[in-house]
Structure formats: structure tokens, C-alpha cells
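Everyone, describe these C-alpha cells:
***
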Amino acid sequence: DYFPTELQLYDHCKSSFDCLLFIAHSHCDRSSRTCVCQNYHVAFNNTMCLPASLLGYGCITDQQCRIKVPHSRCVNGLCECEENYIRLRKDRCLPPAKVDDYCL
């Protein structure tokens, strides 16, 4: 009988249940038969799947911010726009406008 005693991300699996027993927000990828993070989650230390985050919300890694907001990063535990980018609401980082560009 097959019963995993401990699984990490990218370990072999037979079903998503195997992965979810050990890693929240993961599933068993059908083609590779390995545990991977669900959509809008990022792998962290091969042991966790962290949720995507919007501007002003909590984060641990830059990837959490960048999944939903290009040109963002994690600074002091919060998602913010990269240097020289301007925040628009909680989901956009705009480049600075140039002469004759449209402005908001």
C-alpha cells in the first residue's frame, strides 16, 4: 500500500489528497505527478504555498506580490510598487509618465 508519511513540494504523488495532507493550497499535477501549488499561490521553501497578495497587503516574498501586480515587490511584509512605479488602487503599478503620455 502507498501512503505518504511526509511530502514536500515537487515530491511524487498519486492524488491531490496526498499533497493536501502536508501542504495547504497544493495539488498533485497530473502530468508530472508531483505536488505543486494551486493557482495564485507561490512555493516557499518547498514546504508551503503562499497566497498571492495585492498592494498594501501582507507578504513574505516578492513573488506573492508579482503574481497579481506586475512591477511590485514585498517590502517590510507588505506589497508595494517597485521604485519609480506609481500605485493605482491595490492592483496596478504604473510606470512614470513621459512627455505627451496620457496621465491619470
Notes: The first strand starts at residue 26 and ends at 28. Residues 41 and 51 are 4 Å apart (CA to CA).
